[in-house]
Each structure stands twice: as structure tokens, then as C-alpha cells.
User: What shape does this take?
Amino acid sequence: MDRRPAIKPGPDLRQADTGRDDSFDSATDGDGFGRLDTGVTGMTGSSIDTLYDLGLPMEALGDDTEDTELDEPVPNAERLVAQAMALAGDDHDAATLVGRFWRFAPDEELIGFTAEEMLDAARAHRDLAQQRVPGELKLRIHEPDAEQHHTVVEIVTDDMPFLVDSVTALLNSHHLDVHLLVHPLVVVRREPLGRLTEVSADVEPDDAIAGDLVESWMRIEIDPVRDPDEREKLRRELQRVLTDVREAVEDWPKMRQRALALAGELAAARTSDNRPPVPEKDITDSVELLRWLAHDHFTFLGYREYRLVDGDGKGPALEAVLGTGLGILRSDSPEARSLSSMTPEAHEKVMEKRLLIITKANSRATVHRSAYLDYIGFKIFDEAGAVVGERRFLGLFSTAAYRTSVQELPVVRRKVAEVLDRSGLSLRSHSGKDLLQILETYPRDELFQIKTDDLYHAVTGVLRMAGRRQLRVFLRRDAYGRFISCLIYLPRDRFTTQNRLRMQDILLRELNGVGVDYTTRVTESMLARVHFIVRTDPTNPPGDIDADLLAEELADATRLWDDDYRLVLERKLGDEQAKHLFARYADAFPEGYKDGHTPYEAMKDLAKLELLEEPGQLEMHLFRKQLAPRAGGDGAGDDTMDVRFKVYRYGEPMMLSAVLPVLHSLGVRVVDEHPYEVDRIDGRVFLYDFGLCLPEGHQDLAEVRPHVENAFAAAWRGEAEVDGFNELVLRGGLTWRQVVVLRAYAKYLRQAGTVFSQEYMEHTFIAYPRIASLLVELFEVRFAPGGLTAQARRQRSGELVTAIGEALDDVASLDQDRILRSYLTLIQATLRTSFYQKRAGGRPKSYVAFKLNPQAIPDLPAPRPKFEVFVYSPRFEGVHLRFGPVARGGLRWSDRREDFRTEVLGLVKAQMVKNAVIVPVGAKGGFVLKQKPGDRDEAVVCYKEFISALLDVTDNIVSGEIVPPEDVVRHDGDDPYMVVAADKGTATFSDIANEISTAHHFWLGDAFASGGSAGYDHKKMGITARGAWESVKRHFREMGHDTQTQDFTVVGVGDMSGDVFGNGMLLSKHIRLVAAFDHRHIFLDPEPDAATSWDERKRLFDLPRSSWEDYDRSLISEGGGVYPRTAKSVPISPQVRAVLGLDDDVTQLSPQELMRAILTAPVDLFWNGGIGTYVKASSQTNAEVGDKSNDAIRVDGKNLRCRVVGEGGNLGCTQLGRIEYALTGGRIYTDFIDNAAGVDCSDHEVNIKILLNTAVADGALDIAERDELLAQMTDEVAELVLRDNYDQARAINNAQAQAASLLPVHRRMINELERAGQIDRALEALPPDEELAVRSESGLTTPEFAVLLAYIKIVLEREILAEGLADEEWTTDVLVNYFPTPMRERFADRMAQHRLRRDIVTTVLVNEAINRGGISFVFRVVEETAASAADVIRAYVVVREVFGLRELWAAVEALDNKVSPELQTTVYLDTRRLLDRAVRWLVTNRRSPIDVPAEIARLRAGVVRLLPNLETRFHGSERESLAAHIDTMAERGLPRELAEQATRLMYSFGLLDVVETAATSGRDVDEVASVYFVLSDLFRVDSLLSKISLLPREDRWQTLARMALRYDLYAALAALTAEVLDSTADSLSAQERVQEWEQSNATSIHRARRAMGEFDESRADLAALSVLLRQIRTLVRTSAAA
Assistant: This one.
């Protein structure tokens, strides 16, 4: 019989041993806490398997040890024993003891043992046995130390039966696994008092002789017992059990004799006068049974006699007879047990006049085996026939009792015979044989205890089941009311563990059970049998039991699932469809599924399963499961605990680790999970059944069910992210798409620099789901297409904003209030969104674009762009910043997921100033990959979606008309201009962008992204590097070095495969590249040959995907090499030390140290062509730089020792780092100045394509012809672009030449820009006024001038574009000249219709005016004259054309590397003086707007006539000054002809007055000029002008005073000229006319000359000059009056 516990092992509820209780009820009616009661609750001593069974330490449980590492080789026990014996050496007794001790130890139990340990164990046991008298127990339990994983129990006792069984049974009851058990029988000799004298380990126990003792030595290793109290408890119980064994063994013969004596006594009493008053069969059964038991069919464990006595007024009581106890009942129990304290059944049984009692005690045996004790009692009667006592035997039926035929068993055979006779069946018949077989297999314990009548009904009931698939239950109550026997027969295929547990639960519930045991019998028969013994609570016994109802409930619980499933299908679908689906799914569902689901539930699942057709397809089902009512329950409970969520997936399994985060993100807790595999014919479906606990405050499940299912599917498909926002589906009733809106804004806020984490934002919305719903509704009202008019949108939006504001009043936390209000601000600042656009299939797009108005978002960091598009997707995020309607800049693949907007904002600042040279203002975009960072294929996919998203919210132009994007509600004006360019990571993506543009039918076509296959390849052109090289050449020219003809040393960042570095290092064959590094290698060539190294660099440049590793080592000079950046150290040769300027003791450096040394090397040029920021200011921290990857190698600007820095790459230096370097004398501009050629080239390409595409659209050109034309113009486009680089570098150097003298002007200009909000002084690292005051001798640095240059252009372009200058007809020539020659020749007539005509014209004019006139040129004119900027530009064009300045400028530029740069700068500044004065003259003397063509026509002819021989027109000191200036310039190296031309221009400003006077007077310009210059000499005008120029201009008023004096002087001279001309005869010479005029105005002239004399003796300050000019003006008035 296989008896197992029917419920899971739990805590040991048994009471500690408090003494023996051998009262009657301990065996028949106990309450579970008696001395023998060890299992009333069914908590048996089954072992719990845990990892501790392996003997592993706790730390090992958390280790990642592979399972294979836990497998140790199994040792050879014999070999180990032999080794241990050998270790004993001369100790023969120890050697033989080891052999005896371990000889039967299994190999597998000796894993981990050593021979030394085995020897020590045997000796330790011998030590334990040193002193012991017979009958004494020696027991020792070792305390395990921290490193021991077993507790050792050592026992020495007399040899007797049942020792091992009893001890292991006790250990199992304590859930202690036995890992090692050796129990040798050892023959010993002892002194009378027990001292061990000899261990005869080599003597077999059977060979022991007189004087020998046979002892049982047991060593048991069990799970560690570390608690001292637990060890003490175990020791006591082991001692008790072993005492029980000893007592039972010692008294066994006596108990057997008592049985035989009692049998004889009863046999004799049968015929005596004292015959018991019981049926004859009782006596016969008793005699046979006693004799049968005594013949080794019963293990006698205890015996005692009892007498019925008066119970001290409490009625009869049962009392043990002193001295009658044997075995485990040897101890006397003086207390009597009142019958009234027993159950009614037990009370009745005690007094019943039946001789024999056969039942089960309600306690388990402690000896032999842990089974419930068999209790056999024989009542004692007095002479009156009343029950007066009992003789009781306790023990266990032997196995023979279970093997013997029922026809031979005492007591049982009589019952069997009566049943067979009563059945009337012949044993030769089939039914008779079946009936006998039923009886033979009937539970033996039941046969002994059951009444014959009950037995008959049970076995005939089983017999009638033959061939029937049904369930029958046969119940029998224990005669003492302690348990109910439940014998259940059921179809064999229904017998499963699951069904057994179901039956068990039903029986415990219906019978008020407190514990249960079971045995099973499963044979080839159709029926299986389960015998349950349900222990009941005596204080709460079950009432009447309806066996039929119980059987029905058990049948329902165990019914065959398939049968019910077919029935459900037939009822729901009809026979035909049911048959089809049954065949499809009956075998498809696994047994585990059937065990956990009713057929009706399977029917629900089938509806979902039938929807699955495609691999990977997903279906979900969220529902409440109808739970069975609990007994005694009121039906109320937690309604969230019965929520189930099922996921069905076809063909592909789902990892639980991936599913659980999705569910948790919805706010639910997963309380259980059951996966199933449904194997259909067409494939496998994976079904996952989750039990969910919904969050508090969730919406009604019926309302949100589809939302939850869709949200899960979206998250699983990757359409929605897995985060806390998903909880709003349950809490707020939002759809997953509505949640996307809130999530996207959270992502934007994180990029915008909010201090709140996304998790905190999630918690905020979860706490206020109503506000979340209101915000989403506001978003929908503003942007959901269709339905509402603009007025209705505004009205409803206002109502919602009010409602949100009221709801926000209830938000307690200030931080949460800020979060929610920032959302409200963002939604209101959103201008457009692509949220409502759908893909072709009708699904939402996988990304969402939000076009924002940054000016309406106060928390954004500066600078704030004009427009911003944020693109959100689960796969990527991106941002595009534009500082104007027409803007351009690259899109980069960023790796800064946490702050890519910060990166882009930093880049767009550089782009803004870089774009000052081109038509569009600055823009920049960037995107980051979220799922597969670094994966190029993923980057391409995300780039495509990013581009598409940008176009989704951009207007288009169709047939000249603006077409808004579909399904986009616009809250801004028309905005059709969107262009992009390549950047880091997207260098080869231009064609991809243009394909998308074409697919969108975007009006720009492939002009959308420059640099594609049908555009200008920047790397092939080398345009970015060539542009930066213009700056490098300018720097070196300023130092008197020609980079194209003279060698110079270089260090750099980058490698030859890169565009900027590779092209840059090929721009001169005199480059001596001594060191460089990129992200992979460090290159060292300390003494390179310029020509040879150039050839090798060219080879690497032409080699696809080359690196420094490909450099020919044989060409590297001595001491050099190529080293990986991953090396631990790099050897430093003497040559490298010398070229890098390292100390003599440096012999090796780490790669980081070496790269820092390269950056600070004392070379001519540091060329940055890489990615990263390598130079900062000493005042900056690395964290402020924001480029963590290069923190280890970054250096300070003041530590750079190179002479020049060329910034081909972006952000190589911080602006403060540049300034710090420049202040130490280094030559540097900025990255946006140096590498502007790339963006300039792209802008030319776009503008050219916009024009040519109109020709393509009209059919005047096809695409192939257009592309060919583009290619033909490549070189000229490059020239146009490089011209801009050249001009900007020259402009900065010219500004540097006047840095000190114009510092007050620059300071005022910076302040004015800052006051107008046009520049953030701190952000652009422009020095504060306090620092400028200290720089009075040096002024601004070139990097600072670069910033000013760019911002002045940006501000001017914005202002002039609004004034309409570009619409004037004369600007057409400006537009035409912007384009290359082939386009001017073929398409000039189309240029006026160019969509960016105004922008191009404005950009060209502003660039030229500032580059030529100077950074402060327009500012000073506007400041001094209050003219508009547009008029200043108009005046500039007039002056340029009137005086022919372009010819002079070209001649000076042609002298590059021929004359000193200082000389060239002098000429530029001299012409700039003419520009300044002539422009002021024009804006002062002409009405606005200045008519450019008219003014040119009015002035140019006269100036052209007078200018060529201007030096001959001056007189006296002025002519001498002019000639001296010519001589000086010629002496400095300027060609004389050019010196004359430049000097004439410098002195030519007065020609404007001459021409103007000639025009107003109608005189010839020669006539006017001759008088004008005589008067100029007379009044020493040139000297006075020089004195005026020396006046300070610290503030605006001083500047205005200077200008007033200068123009008053010129005006007076012009007026005097007119007076002389009008008052003298034309026939006279100029000298004569002036002399005649002098005579006529002698007095006034005398006063003026006297004033001039006094002036010569004065300080020539403002006061003196003012007085002098007053005298001259007075002379004009008196002369006119005369």
C-alpha cells in the first residue's frame, strides 16, 4: 500500500513530548495532541526538497554556477575505505573499525569525503562509545560550523530491530533529509561498569562469543540544524524514539505471550460459566485473531489493561491498571479518562457488549514505520455481563497481513464468507470471481474494521459498476467518530493528480475534514480506486452526508473534459460545426489546459483562437472569471482578484520576461500565470493565462476592456512603449494612442531640461487621471481634423483650459502642479501635429511629429528657435530646430539619448552663425535610436521615418499654391520651406531623404537634401576642408608663411578616410603631419618627409574605409608608429619627445596622456577634422563641455602650443577655449567660420535646384540634362563658396586690426544687440563690459569677432528682408550674379521668379557690405545718422559702384603672399574710411529710400572724371601728404600704380561734394574741383580731418560729435566752394578766383585764420575744433551775405 500525505507539507503542528498519555482516548478519541498523536492534521513527515538538500552554502545559491559544476565524480567506496585504513597505520583497531564502519556506505553518499575524514569519523564514534553500559543510549548531535552543510548525528546503542527505520522516520517527520547513513553492527567488549576495552571490528556479529556485546553504531548526516534549541529538541525526540524501540523490543515476547494467553483464556471461557455475553462469532474471531497475530503477523509495540471505575462524580471513567503496561505503554498513566469527555460514538463503543475492537489509533507509530497504529482491543465483562475493562494491543500489522488472501485472514474471512453467501454468486461464475477479486483487493484495514453489512453493500456496488464509466463513492464513518473512510471508484482515464486533488478538496470541504490520507490502486482494469481517510474534527463533526450528492459533485469535478467540451460545442454551434471544431481542438488543447479550464471557458478561447491565421498574430481577452462560491462565504470579496487576461499568439512563443513588464506597465499585478501550447493541425498557438490584480481607482472593466487589450497589443508590437503612462488606460480610461500624446510630451520635457524624471511625471498623471483626460481632450479639440470650425475649436479649447485650471487648484504638490501646467503650456504651444495621419492600411503611423512654438514655452533653455519639430516614436526620437521660416542645417544620428536636444541646440547655435553667409538661417536636427543603438540598418529606417515626420507637418507648394498637409490642423501661417543636410552619421543619407521628398511630392524634390547622387558630393569636392583651409592660409599669411610653398608641422584629430581631415591633409604638399589620432588609433611620424607622406596620405584617402593601421610603416620616420587607443601604454621615442615637446624622462605614456600631448604639441598647425570637443577653457569643467567620451584627453586653451588652429570639424573647441587660446597669442577663428563652406555649398545646390526644377517642370530641361549641368558647374560653385570663406576670414582680420581703436564701438554694439534680445552675451561667451574695460589695449579676440560678425549679419538680414530692399529692380543683377555662369547665360529670365529671390539678394548684399565695410560698419552709420539699415546697404552699393572699389579690392587680393598682410589690411582700411564717409554723406543728403541706380548715375560720371588724376588737384601740404602716402605704400611693397590708386580713393571723399556742387550749380566738375581743392588747402582741411579722427569715441555722443565736426567741415568747404564760384569770374583760374574771394572777405577770413593759428597752439580737443569750425561756418554766412 502506498500511503502519502494528501496535503502539502507544512509546519510541524505536533506538540512537544510532555510525557506519556496512555489513556483510552489517546488511541480512540484523542484531540490530536496526545503522546502518540503525530499526524491528526495530515501533516506527515514528508521531506521538502530545497536547494539546501545539495548542501550548498547560502552564497552559492546566488552564484551563477553552471549546473555542470555541481556534478562531482562519484568516488569508489572500496578504494576510499582502503585509503582510510592505510592512514590508520599501526592503529590496527582503527583500521579494522574503518573497514567495518564504512564498508556498506554507498558510493554516491561518499561524494566529497576524504580518507582522512572517514578515519576521523570512525575514531570519533569509537570515542563516543568509550563508556556505555548495556541498555544505555549514547547520542551526540554535532553543531555545524559556518562552512559545514550537514549536521552529524552519532548513536551508540544495543543492537535491536527497528533502529534504522525508527530513526529515519523521525528525521523525515522533521523534514530533515538524510545525506549519509552508516549503521554497522560492531562487536565490542566492555568492563562491568561499561568502559570499552576492545573493538572487535573484524568479528561478524553472528560469530560473537560469550562476553562479546553486539552494538549498533549509527552515523547520520542530515540537513544542517543550526538553532541550538532545535538541536536539543531533536536530541530529545531521538532519545524518546530509541527508548520506544528498546521498550517495544524488550517487551515484545511478553506482549506475544499475553496474546496467546488471552486466546487460551477466551477459548476456555467459551464453554465455561464465565462466557462473555457476546455473540459466538466474536469469541471465535478473537481467538483466531490473537493466535494469528502471535504467529509473526503483528508487530507488538504496546499493551495495557484498563478498568472502568467511578470518576469522582463525573460518571464512569476508564483507568489504566498499574503494572500492566508493556512496550511503548510501559509507563503507568495514573489519570482516569471520564467517558463523558469522549465523543458520543466513543462513549457508546466503550459500553457496547461486543468483545473485539479492531480500528486505527489516531496517532502514528514511532517504532518501525511511521504509520497509524493498529489498535486491537478485547473487552472485559463482569459476572453480570457488564463491561468493566479492556485489554489493548497496539502495533502494526505485518506485511503478511496485506499479502494473505482474505479467505484466510481471521475476522476478515468470516465477513468475506458472509458477503459471498449473501450475494448468492457461485465462485465458479464470472460475477462470483469478480466479487472475490473485489474483496481480495479491498483495502485490508477497511476489511478488519468494516461491518459485514457495509462491506456487502460496498462490494456489490462495485460489482455492479462493471463495464460502466462512472464514479461511485462508498462512505464509512469510523466507529469512534475520528475519521470517515471514503472509497472512490472512477474511470481509470479520469484518475489524474489534478482530479485526485479536486476530490480531496471536495471531501475536506463537505466532510469538515482537518486532514486526509489516501491510497490508490490503478491496474489494467477500467476503474481506478482511491481510498481517502478523511480525519474529522471531533468538536465539529459532519452532519448527515448525502452520498449520492457527494458522488455527483465528485463526478462533476472529475468528468472527462473532452466529453463536456463536445457537449458545449453542440449546444452552441450545432452538430456539424461542433464536429469540425471538436476534431480541430479536442486533441490540440494540452491536458494542463483542460485541468484548469472548463469546456465553457475553452469555448470562449476558441472564439479567439479561430481568429489567428498569420504567424505572430496576437489576440487578447480580458474578463472576470466566475469563481465558485466559497463554503460559508457571503459572496463578497475583492472583485479585482478574479480578473483574467489571456494572450493568444500564433506560431511564435512569448517570453514571460517580455510579457510581464507590459502588464505591469498597465498598473496591474500578475498574481499567477499559466502558459499553454495549443497544437492545431495548421500550427501551434501559444496561450498565456494571467491572473491580474487591478490597481485601485481603475475604470469599470467593461468600459476599458478594449482599451487594455489594444494597449497590450500595441506595446507588444512595439507601437507603444512599456512605461508607467500605460496605467492611464485603466485609471483614466484613455486609449493607448491617447497615452502616446502624454508620453511624447514627457519625452520632450526631458529633452527640454525639466528637472522631473519621467517616472515622476507618470506618477503625477496616475494620481490625477482626470487632468490627464482633460489634457488629452484639449489636444484632440485643437488638432483632431474635421468636425469643428476654427471658432468652435477656440471656444471649446478655452473651456477646457478653464476646466484644467480649476482641476489644478486641487493639486497639492507644487512639483506636480508644475508638471501638469507644463503639459498645458506644451499643448497650447503646439502648432501642428501628425498624430491623426494614418498609413495606407489605416493604422496610425508609428511616429508622431509635433510642431512647436518655442517662444511660447518659457522653460526652454536659450536660445529659443522660431520653430521646433519634435518627433516621437518607440523606436527613435528626434528634434529639428529652425531659427526662421527659411532655415537649413544637417540632421545627425546622435548617440546622446538623454540630452540629444541639448546637443542639437549647441550645434544649431554654431549653425546659426555659420549660416550667416548663406540664404537660410540656422537649423539643426538630430535623432537617437532607442531600441538598437549603433545599428546602421535601424538608423536608416528611423532616419526615413524622421524625414517623413518632418514633411508630415510641412506645407507643400503645388502649382504655385500652398497646400497644407493632410489631416493636420494648423495654428500657424504657411510654412513650406524645409530642407535638410547630411551630418554626423547621415553623410550618405541624402539620397534617402530626397527619395522621401519625391514620394511626398514635396515641391523641393531632390533639392530637399543637398549632397545626394544628383548633387554636390562634399567629400569628393573637399569643399568643407577647402573652406577651412582658406582660414588656415589667412592665419599663416598673417605670420608671413605661405602654406602652399613652405613646409610646416601639423598635428590633428581624424584619419584619412574622413572628409574634413582627409581632404584637409591633402591641401598642401608641404604639410609635415607629425602626429594624429582618431577613435581607433594614434599615428606618430616625428620627422616626416612632406612629399612622401603626402603621397601615402593620398593613398589612404583613396583606399575605402582606411584607417591609420593601413599606413605603410616603412614610410614612417624613426621613432614613430601606429598604436591602438586600447593599448595600455605607448612607447615614447626621443624623436617623439622632441616633436611633442615632452620632458626627457618620458619613455612611455598611456594613450590618453599621449593624445593630450599631441593636442598641446609645439607645432605650426592643429587641424581638427574629427568629432568631439578637445579644447576648453581652464575656467570650464568637463561636465560643462558635455562630451564625456573625450573628458580624459581634453586640454585647456591656454596650454595649446600650436601657432594656428584650423577647425574643419564642429565643436572641436569650446568658445571660451578658443578665446583663452587667442588671448595667449594663438591664431584661431571659430568652427562656424572655418567650415562654413559645407553649408554654403549645400545652400547653393538647393537654390540652383529650385531654379532648375522650374525648367524641368516646364519641359525646358530634363532630369538628365539638369544633372549634367549641375556637374558642369561644380568648380564654379566651389569658387563661389570659397569666396565667402575668404571674405569672412579677411573681414575678421581687418576687424582685429582695429580691435583696440574701435573697442568702444564694439562694446556699444554688443550692448545694443543684447538690449534688443538679438544675442545672449553669456551664451555666446562675449565678454562683459568689466572685462572689456580691461582689454582697452587689445580689444576683442578673433573668435569673439567671428560671433559678432555672424550675429550682425543675422540681424541685418532679418531687418532688411522686412524692409523690401530685395524687391527693388536694381537687385536683379545681384540675384543673377549669385548663380554660376551657365545659369546666368541660360536661365537669367527665370531668376526673378525664384521662390527665395528676396532671401538670396538680402544675404548677398549683407554679406558683402559687412565683409567689406566691417563688422561695425552698418551699426556705426545707423548710430550716427539714424538711417535705416536698408539705406546703409543701398548707400554702400552706390559708393562701391561710384568709386569702382571692386577693382581695387581685386588688385589687393591678387597680392596674397606677395606683399605683407599688414599692407593689404592697410589698403582695406583706407578704402573702408572712404566707405564710412561716403555712405554717411549719402544717407544724410538723400531722402529714404535711396534710389541706387539714380545715385550711381548722378555721381559716378563726375567721380570717374576726377579720380584718375586726383593727386594733381590737391595743393600745398595736402598734395604733399598724398604724395608721401603713395611713397610710403610703395616703399612697403605695394605696386606704385596700386599705391596711387588706393591713395586717391582714400582722399577722394570730397569728390562727392564736388560732384554735388557741380550738379546743383550747373557747373563743370573740373571747374568746381579746382576751386574746391584750393580752398581745402587754404583752410588745411586735411589736417583738420586728421585732428577730428583723433578725437575719442568712447560713447555714442563722442562719436556723434566727431561725425558732426567732420561733416560740418565738409559742408563748409562745399559751401565756400559754391560762394567762390558764384562770386568770381569763370575766366579766372582757381587760384585767382580764391584770391579775389579772399580780398572780398578779408575781415572774415582774417578772423578764421587767426582762429586756426590759435587752434594750432591748443590741444586740438573737441572744444577747440568746435570753435574753429564755428569761425569757418561764420565765414560761409558772411561770404554769402556779401
